[in-house]
Specification:
Blueprint: E1 11-13, E2 16-18, E3 22-24, H1 39-50, E4 55-62, E5 74-75, H2 82-94, E6 98-104, H3 124-128, E7 137-138, E8 152-153, H4 156-175, E9 180-185, H5 190-195, H6 210-227, E10 234-239, H7 250-262, E11 267-271, H8 293-303, E12 307-310, H9 316-324, E13 330-333, H10 335-339, H11 343-351, H12 362-377
Parallel strand pairs: 3-4, 3-13, 4-5, 4-6, 6-9, 7-8, 9-10, 10-11, 11-12, 12-13
Antiparallel strand pairs: 1-2
């Protein structure tokens, strides 16, 4: 019966088959210890796998120390990081889920406060608390916003090193047991800031025309594809629009998606915003349920590439309809899963496809089936 619902149907990308179409959207937790995973992360990600999420995506993870957004961001650039990440992927796999990791460089938004401490540039009080301050880098020497540090404009040599850093992190992630690697090309971080004319004022081969502004993200996508196993899928998260006049547009995103597909990227994860001051995924329109789904639909239809929809998709019925209408191939759920880590299992109950709690871990299913009988008898 579950095959009647696309939300629970498997899907394959290269050598990886996801057990269902629900993805944990990467959400930065800002609680790493010197870029390393800790018990919080093990519990945090493990519970989503236990809750039945098909693909558990680990939050944005820096490819170099300077690429962290905050002092609490994860990093994967050293062999020393591998054992903890391997432990994490083992936990995720033990519950039947697949594991993805989003790799990133914070760019001109780096060296910032943790979200709950202000989400702005580091202050004297932050430094007094022991937070490290460093100079961010970007395509140009334009600060993210007034009062933010001026980034160092990257040299051509630094750009070539960055390409190697992304590949190195992707290879470490593959060794750590991650099934899918996602490149973060969104939300105003380094690679997206190369794409948008709001941040990229370069006059060399990496700036100016759309072709030039796409050059670095496309090089990194091609480099990563060449380095990884043919069986390892690559996803790319994009900001489909800046929501700002003169910025990146949905039409640009269609072109980028076509080129990423040519470079070997298997799916486009369609978010938006990030080049305004009010948060990572901000926009200047009123948000509402499914407000970003049209981006995934347009990119899928025009670029002929699989997409993932994300953004205020709160109910199983909505997720199912997005898939049924052909607007996306996967649905990413974020804060709704924070609120309810068993969201996927509850959808199965709501749809009537798991009356005996067989999708739950066996100890849970045994107790819950007894509970359901007791409730029905009242």
């Amino acid at each position: 019966m579950s095959n009647d619902y696309l939300i629970f149907s498997p899907i394959t990308f290269r050598g990886v088959t996801l057990p269902n179409r629900i993805v944990l959207s990467p959400m930065a937790m800002y609680i790493a210890d010197e870029a390393a995973l800790n018990d919080f992360h093990m519990t945090h990600y493990g519970k989503f796998a236990m809750g039945g999420v098909g693909l558990v995506t680990v939050e944005q993870t820096a490819v170099c120390r300077r690429g962290r957004i905050t002092n609490g961001c994860l990093g994967l650039w050293s062999e020393d990081h591998l054992p903890a990440f391997r432990r994490l992927t083992d936990v995720i796999h033990s519950f039947g889920s697949k594991a993805a990791i989003q790799i990133n460089h914070g760019g001109r938004k780096a060296s910032a406060q943790r979200a709950w401490q202000g989400n702005g540039p580091l202050t004297a009080d932050d430094i007094a608390r022991g937070e490290e301050l460093w100079q961010p880098e970007g395509p140009s020497d334009l600060p993210f916003a007034p009062g933010w540090p001026v980034p160092e404009a990257m040299t051509l040599d630094r750009i070539q090193l960055l390409r190697r850093e992304f590949v190195h992190t992707a290879l470490l992630a593959e060794r750590a047991g991650f099934d899918i690697i996602e490149l973060h090309l969104a939300h105003g971080y380094l690679l997206q800031s190369f794409l948008t004319p709001l941040a990229n004022k370069r006059t060399d081969a990496y700036g100016g025309s759309l072709e030039n502004r796409m050059r670095l993200p496309l090089e990194i996508a091609s480099d990563t594809r060449a380095a990884l196993s043919d069986k390892t899928p690559i996803f790319a998260r994009i900001s489909a629009t800046d929501w700002i006049d003169g910025g990146w547009t949905l039409e640009d995103s269609v072109v980028l998606a076509e080129r990423l597909k040519e470079a070997g990227v298997d799916l486009i994860d369609c978010s938006s915003g990030g080049n305004l001051l009010r948060g990572a995924t901000n926009s200047n329109l009123a948000r509402g349920p499914l407000y970003q789904v049209p981006f995934a639909e347009t990119v899928r239809r025009k670029a002929l590439v699989p997409t993932m929809a994300v953004g205020m998709i709160r109910t199983g019925a909505d997720a199912e309809q997005v898939l049924r209408d052909g607007k996306a191939d996967l649905v990413a759920i974020g804060r709704q899963l924070l609120f309810n880590p068993s969201w996927v299992q509850h959808c199965a109950q709501e749809f009537g496809v798991d009356p005996n709690f067989s999708r739950w871990p066996e100890p849970y299913g045994w107790w819950l089936s007894k509970w359901a009988k007791a409730v029905a008898a009242v």
